[in-house]
Design a protein that fits this description.
Three copies of one chain form a homotrimer. With about 525 residues, chain A is an alpha/beta fold. Chain A contains twelve helices and 23 strands. The first copy, chain A, is globular and about 65 Å long. Chains in contact: A-B, A-C, B-C. Chains A, B, C: GO terms for molecular function: beta-galactosidase activity; metal ion binding.
Chain lengths: ~525, ~525, ~525
């Protein structure tokens, strides 16, 4: 009521880093009510959860325990969905009164936390206007994926609501960013669609838990060494703002990030190093390297703009999601499924079609058996002799037109000589199933082939490993941000097709051979690609 | 009452994997009553437990706490014995009503868990007819020892009540058995005396905690890849059944497995890598390799049929057990004691005779000091320059006829030049005390010497490391099971003395040079050895 | 009352190893009362603790929680000080009645535990007459520092109230001392100022938790192997007693050990391997190697006798402590501050002077930013090319007469080319600030330079690494204890200036080339140095 009509207030951030759920008696009661609403009768729940196995049959919703690990997989998945719905209700308790008093121009956001898996961010962000996230990541490729994750929640630009001016204090080891790296990472955020980068914290509080957290102004109130770097950045942002206005990244390829699938795998990893986020980022890296901009989205989103979709671990694949994907494939889409895909239905129950569940008839093949791996197994794929890591599956073609790709070398006997991947035409598109996570070099080669097949190779493909190119496109021009994420200078060739004008120094060459110093950044404007 | 007189019911399995005890107030009360029954007065308990040390004196049984670690060693050992008695009472609560209604031909069993140390299996199995155990072991030598452990509880054939068709889901890393390995392990079970091998689980339940556990039939109800292997096995078992009927393994050597000793060492390990089961299996391997069939038994069992008994860590050695062993030694038995033997009495108190306690006067030597080791120490034993690992003791001969064997090289000064083992004639037999766990090569050489001295060398000694030979003997013939536990083929010579007939293909050679493919199994019948 | 006037009682040891505090409701109440007494009003506490940050403001002392980690740094430091005061009160509850009945000649002591940080030992020992400590340390250099710590509490000789005759039983791995090492360590204790060495335990109790602890007499009541070594030691002590009488170590250099600083760093380590005790001992080793006797004292103690004081991590540096140090510096003292010094005030709040806080104006420099390190960074210091480990800071000189020493090589950009240390004249003395913990070789070189600059180089500097020389000085003579802490013999030259007479065998050479056998000890008497 006090600030709602104040035009200098651009928006509202509610709460701080929604995180852990409660396990108290009230939460138990709410869970039971939520289950009763969902299943109607306890008999229905018993049937869906297969509680007759291990004598788990309930006669009353009130008997159902609350656990977040080592329980019936159906219970565990429902618990996560209940927690998500509870957070949504919590958010709406705050957004509803704000909207009654706020200007239509004022947005409502909160600050979420990257890959945090405590709730389904796709559901939660339906109740918010703007995605904000707290970026304390240290690896630049993973950071790229997290920015794309943030952008993907609502398929629009986002804010970095917090990031550190140098280092944090809450890790076991709190190492500083190199000189220049903070600026480079801020430009990376912008390149991926951030429209604001906010630093935590401005000046040290003299006491309290964050005395060792990075600051822009020291305990004496004077500029800390990083001040100058952030000052430069501010001036650059001011200069670049008109060019960035109205632009955002646009992708032809998408990576599917499905919370029920992540949860389901995390509940039952089978091999302890199988991390569903690492499985996603293993595919993200080569995909971005070859295809340029990548959207990280949920499988329920609109897929019309994509030519290639990669789903590294789509473990939970209900019928309706499968149909949504199939509709897109039939129109010409290329769908690449990774290992563990299509194993479970919406209740986290095994799909009797065998993997990839409802897509098995369309793939013309199914998985006959999975094998968790600690030692990698030899394989040959995409003209590369490599290794399959963490997981491997035997694929059984069920249609004469199913194509096989690559084969496993000798290991446990079961995999020896079996195909590594199979693919099958569906309408104008195709579905491919890859039964392992290949080592990095083999996966690079394989993803390059997929990207080429789907005609989504970027003109900026195959830049040196430490160079990142980000494109933001508007109605009449494109902004290209080039970043050297290494400590040392890197030289590379920018193709003529991407020739533009340097936004900060128009006299500098903006195509041909370019040298970026360590943590160097250049920003170009160029005509929109044809 | 419903199935008790049904002749198609062969027996009864009660409960599932008896495991952890309760620590609730009722358990406390029961423990106090059990102690009162055992000790009569609190003064008696105080004296036996030496509670005056550390001001632990109790004035009432109700004051005694319940802990399973870091407490008075007497309390800890009594707690384990109380838990055992409580499980016995629990089992009898089930067997008593079953026996009132069951046919005399119906056995009662339960499924125990290998080396699990929560109760004393020798005591528990007195209340059951048949030993059943759940075999989820992955190392074949340890698996061999566990089969012999199961057989030893009642000195008769047993059942494998559960084993996995490929892999399990409850380990941090759940790796699959190689193709052929499941069949090889089933034959190993039979070779060690199993009369049945049952698989968990037959077909995947679509939901519930074991979705990732190995199955014979998949979620679609059709055969999983392992089905064919188990089908072959079933056909082989059917064919072999008449030959196996009435046969079982018979041993001339025994390994003593004493639960009070295991518990006592586990309570007070002194060096963290000292694992009493690993100490047992360190001796089991070479013993089986040289002597063939090994019985794993408790020191209270009938010893008459053995020529050599090895007790690697007989830490708790009460007077009556010592006398039982001495009686057997005097008749010609060779007893080899390992380090930490004979340190404690039945109350887990130090024996003032010093190690090996009541046997010290008969050994003609005692241990003057023990040394826990992290770094192995050099030694010379059985013509081998090797190392002593984990534990070493200085032995002081007290009789001129005591023989010393080997000596320690230079290390901590205390051990330098001291004897590694001593032995002494007792009646027609002898007692030997070995004061360390030698490295594998030295232990092999030393055990071979012991086996030869006791005239128990097997005609199948010294087969290649991956080849296992199991003998089951009946009244009129012997069955020999030969197994290659390696992935790759192994060739070896089967001595003429073991020549027989191949049970599945009588045209194949059953002596002389034999090549077994990876995980290959051959089963022969032969005349009983003379 | 029974023993108070018994002249054969030399003193009283109260309690055993004061250790962990209570967190029960009574402790909460006592903490609240203690805070109220200290701060007067809750507003005052809120202001000092900066509770407005993170919405921690309290309206009542009763709301303040009790934690010993991950809380407001002011709360954490106050908790430790409250616990110290509570232990002091506990000790006085025992000393007051004893003193009412004891002879004036009877001392009161307790047995403390080396670096244990549960309370402030400098405060506690004000209520006791004699320092006693339980020495179960295994590294001889760390043991040396702990003896000096014990001596420093009251700046006088102390007792080793417990040490093991060979080994203990409460570590994960309980390894034995080598033959001869127990004697060598007892002489080390004496060399550092111990006037008694007491062994735990004499004879094994037959039951109870310490069955595996080292003993002098075994379970049979007869001498254990170590008995003879301790018997020899006893005879030596008897012979040496007259010479040792009235002597004690005297130091020209001191190492500051400040409990508030240790606590403050431990609460907020920033890099997990930063251990404030290891930071102290990193400096202790080269300091003792070059300067001989080192006092380990609190910064509040009398400093008049020192020429050089090293404060490796004086993190909490209130104004009054700074003035105490400055007064000594002005008289000619050399003060060497290590990294993390002078960051906090008495409330554990950041000092707005920036590091080293109240000393910054006198140093003519301050720290502009700290960097926690996992990877060491290159540096050049004291003519040595080395590495900075764990921590590095950028130093900004603020006075033209400030001298810089050494510089960092290229690493994170921020440190590149910055000075490693700065120093500044203050009155007749100087303050030096070293901004990292150099690797061992560089720190050796740097400390040697400091020791030389302060004219405190020992005539026994630079002895071989395993040889320790301890000096105890009395009014008319000095006792020199030479110890070889290695297993093997070491030969070295004892300078003529230290020539004396061998206390046990006066015919042996006591200067020039000396060979000590493994764990060898020699004790000389010599005239007091000029």
């Amino acid at each position: 009521m006090r600030y709602g009509h104040n035009p200098t207030i651009v928006g509202w951030q509610i709460d701080n880093e929604l995180a852990e759920p409660s396990f108290d008696p009230e939460a138990h009661k709410a869970f039971h009510a939520w289950l009763q609403h969902k299943y109607g009768t306890i008999q229905n729940l018993n049937q869906k959860w297969w509680t007759s196995y291990w004598s788990q049959t309930y006669s009353d919703f009130g008997q159902i325990p609350v656990h977040d690990a080592e329980e019936n997989p159906a219970l565990l998945l429902n618990w996560k969905q209940f927690v998500t719905d509870t957070w949504v209700s919590y958010v709406r308790n705050q957004t509803t009164p704000i909207r009654q008093h706020a200007l239509p121009s004022q947005f409502i956001t909160t600050n979420t936390m990257g890959w945090f898996d405590g709730f389904d961010g796709y559901t939660l962000h339906q109740s918010l206007d703007l995605v904000g996230w707290d970026d304390y990541e240290t690896d630049w490729t993973d950071n790229a994926a997290r920015h794309d994750l943030a952008r993907g929640y609502k398929n629009k630009n986002f804010w970095v609501t917090e990031t550190d001016p140098g280092f944090v204090n809450w890790r076991p080891n709190n190492l500083a960013h190199d000189k220049g790296e903070v600026r480079a990472l801020a430009w990376q955020a912008v390149g991926h669609g951030a429209d604001a980068v906010e630093y935590w914290q401005w000046r040290a509080a003299l006491n309290g838990q964050e005395q060792y957290h990075g600051v822009i102004a020291g305990a004496d109130g004077n500029p800390a060494p990083i001040y100058a770097e952030i000052q430069t950045l501010g001036a650059e942002f001011e200069k670049a703002a008109p060019a960035l206005q109205g632009t955002s990244p646009h992708a032809q390829v998408a990576l599917l990030h499905d919370m029920p699938s992540r949860w389901a795998i995390s509940f039952q990893k089978q091999v302890e190093d199988f991390n569903p986020v690492k499985a996603l980022t293993a595919f993200y890296g080569p995909l971005r390297h070859q295809a340029g901009t990548v959207d990280v989205i949920s499988p329920q989103q609109n897929l019309a703009s994509y030519k290639l979709i990669v789903a590294p671990g789509l473990n939970v694949l209900p019928q309706d999601t499968a149909e949504h994907l199939l509709e897109w494939v039939r129109q010409g889409g290329h769908l690449l499924l990774g290992p563990r895909s299509g194993m479970k239905d919406a209740e986290n129950a095994l799909d009797p079609h065998l993997q990839p569940g409802p897509l098995a008839p369309f793939l013309g093949a199914h998985v006959s058996q999975f094998y968790g791996l600690v030692q990698p197994v030899p394989l040959s794929l995409a003209q590369t002799q490599g290794k399959g890591t963490l997981w491997a599956e035997t694929l059984v073609p069920t249609d004469p037109t199913t194509q096989t790709e690559g084969f496993y070398g000798p290991s446990n006997g079961w995999l020896d000589g079996q195909p590594v991947a199979v693919s099958h035409q569906v309408g104008k598109g195709k579905i491919t199933y890859l039964s392992t996570i290949p080592d990095a070099a083999t996966l690079d080669a394989y993803i390059k082939k997929q990207v080429q097949d789907a005609s989504t190779l970027s003109p900026l493909a195959d830049l040196p490993a430490d160079i990142e190119a980000c494109l933001r496109t508007g109605t009449d021009h494109t902004v290209l941000v080039l970043i050297n994420h290494a400590r040392t200078p890197v030289t590379f060739t920018l193709p003529q097709a991407m020739a533009g004008t340097d936004l900060f120094d128009p006299r500098q060459a903006a195509s041909g051979q370019i040298t970026l110093p360590g943590y160097g950044v250049r920003v170009f404007t160029l005509p929109n690609p044809a």
